[in-house]
Amino acid sequence: MAKTFPTVSSGNILDEILNNAIEYGASDVHFEPNGQQFNVRFRVDGLLYQIGGFTDFPQEAITSRIKVVAEMDLFEHRLPQDGHFEFVYKEKIYNVRVSTSPTIHGQAVVLRIFNREAFVKELSELGFEEEQLATVKNIITAPYGMILITGQIGSGKTTLLYSILNSLSTPQINIIALENPVEFTVPNIRQLQVNEAAGLTFSLAIRAAVRQDPDVIMLGEIRDSETAQIALQSALTGTLVFSTFHTFDVVGLIIRLKEMGVPRSVLAHALAGVVSTRLVRKICSDCSEPYKLSAYEIKLLGVLSNGLSLRKGLGCDKCHHTGYRGRIGIFEVVQFDDEIREAIVEDRSVAELKDILRSKISLNLRQAAFKKVVDGITTTDELKRVLGPEL
Ligand SMILES: [Zn+2]
After folding, report:
1. Which of 32, 38, 190, 361 can pair with 54 through a Cys bridge, CB separation 3.0 to 4.6 Å?
2. pLDDT tens-digit map of 259-276
3. CA angle (64, 66, 70) in 5-degree steps
């Protein structure tokens, strides 16, 4: 599979690698010294692919070039560093975030490439099923409350968050976003760069934000108890608060927030909704072919498999012979109601809470994923890869 990507030759090496990365739709470029060579890998649609390795090109030269353009300390080799730079390709501006880390074979460098157009999308383009989209629109247009987005790293949380903010953004409302780092400037949103090293922590930033007459606050993440408490309090007193959270499901999130010392009544009444998200790769439309379902798939899909003809990407030049091209979200949307609030206030057991939530969710992650398979958008292999034990 790795052989389908071209090996990058010398020349203006960094520009050439970045041009290639963007051309292939890579989100990240990894430079990894391993003692024998300096490896280059691209992350495309969530998976890493080996692009090539330099054996005769001094790794020092390429690392130094990146550190110069990203305004990092050129002579610091022993500690990790962060930086960023802008890169122009085909008249489009890309924001490149750089992270270096010392390894036993020298410095490893990861470049994350952001493209604003790919970043802020219409909510209807993200992959929500119709009824889910209606619920999301209902939750985000409430006058106050907290809406949390959960999922692992790289599950589309940030794209969803920005798409929501973009859909709410008008000159009539004050949206304050607290981010670390600020990835892109968004019109009509007051973006504040949280800088822990300089003492501007999330908890300090949100204290300042609540005094700035906000209608909507977006918090990049909730890591500490103080930030959680202030965010939930402001959600109770008239602000719409959005944030992301690293948990697998709603019950996990409730448990985590309780552990952070948030009183159950605040939690129950402040939370308006939770959206869980994952990203699955889409079957390449240029090489998709129908195939016969395996016994495993028939068992997995159950009644859905009756008379079903599924498709698979065979691999072509357009999809770099992976059979997949682009990604789409699968979602689970929970709108909090009186029954859920009561269960939280009464501190019901995890099992009871799960039962109540199950009865409220029209389509859980697994069902949403199956729908994407049945609709011919993704494959059962991809579901297994993304949902793992949840499947
Ligand atoms: Zn293809």
Report:
1. 38
2. 999 999 999 999 999 999
3. 115
